[in-house]
Every structure is written in structure tokens, then in C-alpha cells.
Amino acid sequence: MTVSPTTQPQTTHSLPPADAKQRVSQFMQSLQDEICQGLEVLDGKGKFQEDSWQREEGGGGRSRVLTDGDFLEQGGVNFSEVWGKSLPPSILKQRPEAEGHEFYATGTSMVLHPKNPYVPTVHLNYRYFEAGPVWWFGGGADLTPYYPFAEDAAHFHHTLKNACDQTHGEFYPVFKRWCDEYFYLKHRREMRGIGGIFFDYQDGNTPLYRGPDANGPAAQYSNQLAPIEPLGWEDLFSFAQRCGRAFLPAYSPIVEKRRHTEYGDRQRQFQLYRRGRYVEFNLVYDRGTIFGLQTNGRTESILMSLPPLVRWQYCYSPEAGSPEAELTEKFLVPQDWVNS
User: Is the backbone of residue 296 left (phi > 0), alpha (psi -120 to 50) or beta?
Assistant: First the structure.
């Protein structure tokens, strides 16, 4: 059984500094800037258009969207910081000890939908919460390919593992398993993509895994670890920064390798079909979407993660032995990509 986060005492060492909110907010905005600048250079054609917005209850953000670029059909990179008097049910269910406190939340999120079916869709989100004495970092990044290239998956995972290892050698093994668990469509019984890393409620105390599945691989791995020395706020802030800045090195080489691969209508139609899985996950399971809607965030910014074009086909089944079949039968299952 997983130890509940509520049983982990906050120590003085782990309390955030007085300027924590300001520092994280500045980093999240700079991360948005760095990613947008890097993507514009990588795309070579498109430019991000920005909308600034304010939230009536407190806070606001910057939404940036690029459409009809050279490799990007549509991509959105958002920054937000919001505050209020009470947390929504989606958070209180996991951290009931935060109830009754005012909250602050900030983060940067991104989803990119390329034109070429051989270039994978990619998602990133890093965030920070405070509610009275309760605080934590969360986030991650994951890759959703439409055609199977094991070397692309290995590169993406290697880059994220290197970022994790600079803080602790057990972060990647736990957070990789957590990502496989989180980005899973229960009603389809399949993974959304080939994963990456995912973590939440990280406040420097153990266990590392704080998810809902007490018997899953992530919980089992986390629970068998020897006690890990508690990490402080500064340690976890540095970890979040390294992970965020690992995105461009993890994704850009894949884009450069695949963006000019020739494709036809068959590949395009399969891409649009598989994008339907992305829509299903984001509208049914994604906690960032749920949190944004429950806190009266800007709807256009929250739903910018959805692809511009998508299709559903009744009872579709790929041809046996085809690349499309290989994706779903062999690729979209938990694997040790680092050592594959």
C-alpha cells in the first residue's frame, strides 16, 4: 500500500523561501520564452501569436499559438499563474490537507501537433502549487508518435533521464513508470504514446510515487526503494528547471530527422485517426484540463492542446503486419526505452 502524502511531515528545511512564487513564476515565463524561440527557429516559417488574459478570481497568463508553420500544423505554449481562496475538487481529492487555505499555482504547458505523420506529437507541462503550508512541484513531458521509430523513443527518454539523474538516480525509474500509468486510456486499454516522465506532489519527502494506483509498477518500484534523503525546495526547483530545459534537446533532433519524410493520404488519415486518442485523453482524463476548467481558467487556452484536425472511424483495424499495426501492437506498451 502506498504511503499517503498526508502522512509526510513538512520540515523547516523543506519550506519554500519567501520569494518562491516570484522565482517560479519568472522561470515559467522564461521557459515559455525559450521554447517558443527555439521552436520558431526549428520551424523556420511560423511565428507564435500571443494573447494575454486575466482571471477574474485572481491571476492570468500568456497564451501563444503557432499555426500553419513549416513542420507545425499547430502548436501552443502557455504560461499561467492563478490564485484564489479555495482549491478545486481535483486537487483536494489528492491533498485534503490543503483545504481551507488560499492557493497559488503557476506553470508552463505545451502541446505540438506537426503536419508530417512521421513527426510525433509532444506534450510538456511543469507546474508549482502552494496552499498554506502545503507546496509541491509537478509535471513532465511525453511523446506521441504515429509511426514507430525506436531510436526516436530512445533519444527522447535518454535526454529526460539525464535531466532526472542530476537530481537523483531513482527519479527517472519512478517517474517513467508513473508516466506510462498516467497517459493510459482505460476505455481503450492502450497507452497514448511512448511516455516520458510524469510526477506530481513532489515536496521533498518520500515516497516518490504519489499516484492513485497503489499496486501498479510505479508504486511497487517506489515502495521498494531504500529511504531517500529528503530534498529541499531549492533541490526540486532546480530539478524542474533542468527538466523544462531538456525539452528542446529531446525533441528537436527527432523533428529534424523526420520532417522531410515523404507521406501520402494513408499516413495522413492514420495520423488524424490517432489524434482522436489525444482528444479523448485530454477531455476525459487530463488533470491539467480538469484543473483549468474547475478554476475558471481561460477556455481557449485550456483547450489549445486539441489538434486542429482529427477524425474518428468506427471499428477501425489496421492491416496485419503494417506499420500502423506495429504501432498499436508492439510500440504503445511500456518498454525500457533507455536500454532498448
Answer: left
